[in-house]
């Protein structure tokens, strides 16, 4: 299973760059706060780091459908090396602080074609029956990087300073580019003949969205993934108050987030086996119900251990939904438009996190913490029941 050297090189490239990204993220905000002591600058830097992938995702997907995906990924890595070296210069020479969010935004914009290119290349590197396991492994890289990257970033920041953290991240992008360059199967990255013939830029960019809407199976699962992201966005804000309620004060926030990440890793182990063996509707609906039930339990359970277990269940359910959604996209979407469709689905998921973080405070003010999370859980539960009723999900994702 997953013994393709080409696949392993591609996953190694993704892993090393994501680890560097989370290392750099921790150092970035610490550096900005050290220079400015301003919450406004922290907010501006965070927005600059996230917003480009939401805005540019659809257009970035077009690059993956029109051009050699390997070259697009290498160009993305090289551009990010340049951005990190720019941040090294800011840290070393004490340049204007506004350059920090500007360079962070440029790095994120340069990264936007990378996820669609990786997702679009997997069906060419692996047989169809291995796609759930491949997507699970790819999904596991994110939680692992989230757990280890900030710890390494804090260590580098404490020992050597922010400039070294930015420089190390530049090295991870260089290593990623070399690993992608080392994949000998160039045919896996070439665009499908005829994909460049779509007339008009707007028509070419929006073709992926139209293809998603034409395929209810895929669009329903993208909707499920967005709902899970919205719940995660709400959790990122609500977990502070939950930690205080448990007597952990603000320091428990990281522990609860780590429990969600650990649940994600658990979900990546469960997803490929469950999706191969059982009805996709049953598996994905149960995963959504795990997310739905966990939300009010996290807000109301008195036991810290029980809250950690609910966090674990939430992370596992969300990752199972993500793996299922991405596998269905790879099964159903034509190769010549896949990157563009993924270029809508992935930013929409990121946007769901931002929306959840934005709405949770007014919902808590209106309904209370438990009421706000219970409302979100009811929405997810209703979606799970609707998804389970769709006939298209009565079979396993991939034939035995």
TrEMBL record:
InterPro entries to which the protein is assigned, alphabetical: Bacilysin_exporter_BacE_put, MFS_dom, MFS_trans_sf, TM_effector
Transmembrane region(s): 12-33, 39-64, 136-158, 164-183, 221-246, 252-270, 282-299, 305-325, 337-360, 366-386
Major localization listed first in the record, in broad terms: membrane
Membrane-topology descriptor: Multi-pass membrane protein
Top-level lineage group: Bacteria
Alphabetically ordered keywords of this record: Cell membrane, Membrane, Transmembrane, Transmembrane helix, Transport
Occurrences of domain Major facilitator superfamily (MFS) profile (ranges): 1-395
Location relative to the cell: Cell inner membrane
Protein name, entry field: MFS transporter
Species whose genome carries this gene: Jatrophihabitans cynanchi
């Amino acid at each position: 299973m997953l013994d393709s050297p080409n696949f392993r090189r591609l996953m190694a490239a993704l892993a090393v760059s994501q680890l560097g990204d989370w290392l750099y993220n921790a150092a970035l905000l610490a550096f900005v706060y050290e220079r400015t002591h301003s919450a406004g600058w922290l907010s501006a830097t965070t927005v600059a780091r996230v917003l480009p992938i939401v805005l540019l995702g659809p257009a970035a997907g077009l690059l993956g459908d029109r051009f050699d995906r390997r070259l697009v990924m290498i160009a993305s890595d090289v551009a990010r090396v340049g951005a990190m070296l720019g941040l090294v210069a800011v840290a070393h020479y004490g340049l204007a602080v506004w350059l920090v969010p500007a360079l962070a935004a440029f790095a994120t914009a340069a990264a936007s074609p990378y996820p669609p290119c990786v997702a679009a290349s997997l069906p060419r590197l692996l047989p169809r029956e291995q796609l759930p396991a491949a997507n699970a492994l790819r999904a596991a890289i994110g939680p692992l990087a989230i757990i280890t990257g900030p710890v390494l970033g804090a260590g580098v920041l404490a020992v050597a300073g922010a400039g070294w953290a930015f420089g190390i991240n530049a090295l991870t992008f260089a290593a990623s580019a070399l690993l992608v360059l080392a994949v000998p199967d160039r045919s896996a990255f070439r665009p499908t003949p005829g994909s460049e013939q779509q007339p008009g830029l707007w028509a070419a960019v929006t073709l992926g969205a139209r293809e998603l809407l034409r395929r209810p199976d895929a669009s329903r699962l993208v909707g499920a993934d967005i709902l899970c992201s919205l719940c995660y966005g709400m959790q990122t804000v609500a977990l502070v108050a939950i930690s205080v309620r448990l007597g952990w004060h603000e320091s428990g926030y990281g522990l609860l987030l780590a429990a969600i990440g650990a649940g994600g890793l658990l979900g990546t182990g469960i997803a490929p086996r469950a999706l191969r063996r059982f009805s996709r509707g049953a598996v994905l609906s149960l995963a959504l119900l795990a997310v739905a039930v966990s939300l009010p339990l996290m807000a109301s359970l008195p036991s810290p251990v029980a809250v950690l277990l609910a966090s674990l269940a939430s992370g596992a359910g969300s990752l199972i939904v993500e793996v299922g959604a991405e596998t269905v996209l790879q099964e159903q979407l034509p190769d010549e438009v896949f990157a563009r469709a993924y270029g809508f689905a992935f930013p929409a998921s990121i946007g769901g996190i931002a929306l959840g973080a934005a709405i949770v405070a007014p919902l808590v003010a209106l309904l209370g913490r438990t009421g706000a999370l219970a409302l979100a859980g009811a929405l997810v539960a209703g979606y799970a029941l609707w998804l389970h009723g769709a006939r298209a999900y009565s079979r396993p994702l991939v034939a035995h």
